[in-house]
Design a protein that fits this description.
The structure holds two protein chains of two kinds. By secondary structure, chain A is α+β, with helices and mostly antiparallel strands. Chain A has one domain (3-429): Cytochrome-c3 Hydrogenase, chain B, CATH 1.10.645. In chain A, 43% of the residues lie in helices and 18% in strands. In chain A, the strands form five sheets. In chain A, strands 1, 2, 3 and 15 form a four-stranded mixed β-sheet that branches. In chain A, helix 4 (88-118) runs antiparallel to helix 6 (132-153) and helix 10 (270-276) packs across helix 12. Chain B has two domains: 8-156, 3-Layer(aba) Sandwich (Rossmann fold); 168-272, no CATH class. The N and C termini of chain B lie far apart (47 Å). Chain B is α/β, with parallel strands linked by helices. In chain B, helix 12 (250-259) packs across helix 13 (265-272). Chain B has 13 helices and five strands. Classes of the chains: A alpha+beta, B alpha/beta. The interface between A and B is large, with 66 and 63 residues.
Chain lengths: 430, 273
């Protein structure tokens, strides 16, 4: 009889802090807990009593990796409540800013956080010794994403220009134009990068899943649209809290999410988006997705990396299109007059759908806030993946097992800062 | 030093958004070059190879906000020759310090978590220096990459880095930006906030909101608050301007208390006594 306990006390290369505790006996999982010990920071509580105009400066502080996502869900929701119509130029500039964040976050995740595992290495710095040209190339591409955020938002971490109503100052055409040749170069690199990702030996976890993301009639969803799942459900942002449900479990400072009707977990993120919006991918993105080995439909979470390749490519193509046709919005800010009511919006953060709700008083004071980040929505699904994946690999040595568990978790590019925020493995073979 | 004579560098985080350590990852090429000069021996966000102390230089992001973190920061201090705190959370408690001195910590937990008894957190969010001696503080939300690289370079030369403490206003004048208070009547914390961002917000047509904390020496928050009231802000809105991203920094806390509704009265008493 073999008893085994695995503890990963700090899961490395994820955004934030967590641990994994597993107890196994005779190849059966007795206990499995994905523990989130990133300390709580109470954003929803201290947003109460603040003025609506301060929200785009407060909520990005939830996550340094996807600050734009937090700003976008907030500004769109509040604008809809206040009846503010923003200009086409503002729409374009916001999408461009989001493209910057997708490029930066996806490339950071693929190469600095995920790929070292597939090569049996500890970090990208170690990877740079064996693959110097590749590492330089991907860092250059990532930098383009960062630079888009800097030009549009003022800085890449916690941008300052996005406001309810538009931008405090709109980027000038001449500030954006120098990005074009660099983006065109990056686009040329993507098929080769997709081939590299396809060459990595990957585990698999074929499973029946419910994938959830935004959908949009005409553009790959980022800022606007409605919700859909691969099981045929459709809902509006205003129905989010009815269709999904949050659950508080003892071992986690992050809440878990379920579909209310079936009480089962779901998966949001790049894999969900490309499954539900495959026809809206741009031409080179489609080609790169195929090269990376992903054909839709696909629910195996190990294809998330291929989905991120497709989306990074899409973001590059979209950024090129937007910059070429860019006309700065004039004025850069629409007039905003607050009104009382409830604001509810979703945008697509790099790691999945991000829901915000604000109850606002007549004078624009926030009375109540609710934020449901993608990582907390995915936590229960990650635990389920681990339960399915582990029995097949329990005989592996501790170090390899730890690495495999981390890979399962990292498929979701979890941002534990967001979900309070990640992984240390504790496997007990008892 | 490592066996190869390179300084051993560690990076840790407490309660934070990861943004400041991301500035280190975002330094990309500089980071690869630095990788030749230093040995990063513990940086969980970047590498699964996490080695124990001693460390020559340790960077800590985030605020102390749970009982475990109090023990953790003491262990980190013991294992580190030079301890540098990075970012608004580590140097002033961060935006999450908005819970401090509200007397509403229990209520805050109940607002966010359905089962409050699962949560273990301190009443206040604290800067690192509240618990252990700190050798250098780099403020900012996030820290400025240039300042971070300047600090690392100076340390490699064996010198303690010198970081500018002058206000954002000085940087605006240097860059020839139009003053947003004068031209637009927009409240701006630039006169009392340390620069480091390069006067980013005024450059983007809006008022500074204090990411880098108070400038040194501490200057006239009282006069600035009065100016905000002249511009039409209520005393509470004026207080909220100071009580924001770095609102728990002592100078901003005092200003927030002076104009506000008495949140943090205990601190008021400490100040006047």
């Amino acid at each position: 009889m073999t008893h085994r306990q695995v503890d990963v006390p700090v899961i490395a290369r994820v955004e934030g802090e967590g641990a994994l505790h597993i107890t196994a006996k005779d190849g059966e999982i007795l206990d499995l807990r994905l523990e989130i010990y990133e300390p709580p920071r109470y954003f929803e509580a201290f947003l109460q009593g603040r003025h609506f105009s301060e929200v785009p400066d407060i909520v990005p502080r939830i996550c340094g990796i996807c600050p734009v996502a937090y700003q976008m869900s907030a500004v769109h929701g509040l604008e809809e409540l206040f009846g503010v119509q923003v200009s086409e130029g503002t729409h374009d500039l916001r999408r461009l800013l989001y493209c910057g964040e997708w490029i930066e976050s996806h490339i950071l995740h693929i190469f600095l956080l995920a790929v070292p595992d597939f090569l049996g290495m500890h970090s990208a710095i170690e990877m740079a010794k064996d693959h110097p040209e590749l590492v330089k190339k991907v860092l250059d591409i990532k930098r383009i994403g960062n630079d888009i955020m800097e030009v549009v938002g003022g800085r890449e971490i916690h941008p300052v220009s996005p406001r309810v109503g538009g931008f405090s100052r709109a980027a000038r055409k001449r500030e954006l134009d120098p990005l074009l040749p660099r983006l065109e170069w990056a686009l040329e690199q993507m098929p080769g990068i997709a081939d590299f990702v396809a060459s990595l030996p990957s585990p698999s976890l074929p499973r029946d899943v419910e994938l959830v993301s935004m959908v949009h009639p005409s553009e790959f969803p980022m800022n606007e649209g409605s919700m859909a799942s691969t099981r045929g459900k459709r809902w509006e942002f205003s129905e989010y809290e009815a269709v999904t449900q949050e659950l508080h479990v003892e071992h986690s400072n992050a809440l878990h999410s379920l579909m209310t009707d079936t009480q089962t977990p779901y998966h949001t993120g790049p894999l969900a988006r490309v499954n539900l919006n495959a026809d809206l991918l741009t031409p080179v993105a489609k080609d790169c997705m195929a090269r990376a080995g992903l054909t839709i439909p696909e629910g195996d979470p190990f294809f998330s990396m291929a989905a991120r390749i497709a989306e990074s490519t899409l973001a590059i193509e979209e950024a090129i299109r937007i910059i070429r046709g860019y006309v700065p919005p004039e004025p850069s800010m629409a007039e905003v007059v607050p009104r009382a009511g409830r604001a509810m919006w979703v945008t697509e953060a790099p790691r999945g759908s991000l829901y915000h709700r604000y109850d606002v008083a007549e004078d624009g004071t926030i009375l109540e806030a609710k934020i449901v980040p993608p990582t907390s929505q995915n936590l229960r699904h990650m635990e389920e993946d681990l339960r399915m994946f582990l029995p097949g690999v329990l005989d592996r040595p501790d170090e390899e097992l730890t690495r495999l568990c981390e890979m399962v978790v990292r498929n979701y590019d979890p941002c534990i800062s967001c979900a309070t925020h990640f992984l240390s493995l504790d496997l007990q073979r008892v | 030093m490592s066996e190869n004579g390179k300084p051993r560098v560690a990076v840790f985080k407490m309660a934070s958004c990861d943004g400041c350590q991301l500035q280190l990852l975002d330094a990309e090429e500089a980071l690869l070059e630095l990788a030749g000069e230093i040995e990063i021996v513990n940086f969980a966000e970047a590498s699964s190879d996490m080695r124990p102390p001693p460390y020559d230089v340790t960077f800590v992001e985030g605020s102390v906000s749970t009982p475990e973190q109090v023990d953790q920061i003491k262990e980190i201090r013991e294992g580190s020759k030079v301890l540098i705190t990075i970012g608004a959370c580590a140097t002033s408690g961060g935006v999450q310090a908005l819970r401090n001195a509200t007397g509403r910590h229990e209520e805050f937990i109940r607002t966010v978590y359905p089962t409050p008894e699962f949560i273990d957190s301190l009443e206040n969010s604290h800067p690192i220096a509240d618990y252990v001696p700190v050798d250098l503080e780099l403020s900012g939300c996030p820290i400025d990459r240039g300042e971070l690289l300047t600090a690392i370079t100076a340390l490699l030369q064996g010198a303690m880095p010198r970081i500018s403490t002058s206000p954002v206003c000085v940087e605006c004048k240097r860059r020839g930006y139009v003053c947003v208070v004068v031209a637009k009547g927009e409240p701006c914390l630039g006169p009392v906030t340390r620069t480091g961002c390069g006067a980013l917000c005024p450059g983007f047509g809006r008022g500074c909101y204090g990411c880098f904390g108070p400038a040194q020496p501490s200057n006239n928050t009282e006069a600035l608050g009065k100016r905000f009231i002249e511009l039409g802000l209520t005393p509470q809105a004026t207080s909220d301007k100071f009580r924001f991203i770095t609102g728990w920094a002592p100078q901003f806390r005092e200003a927030a208390n002076a104009f506000g509704d008495g949140h943090g009265e205990e601190e008021e008493e400490v100040r006047t006594s």
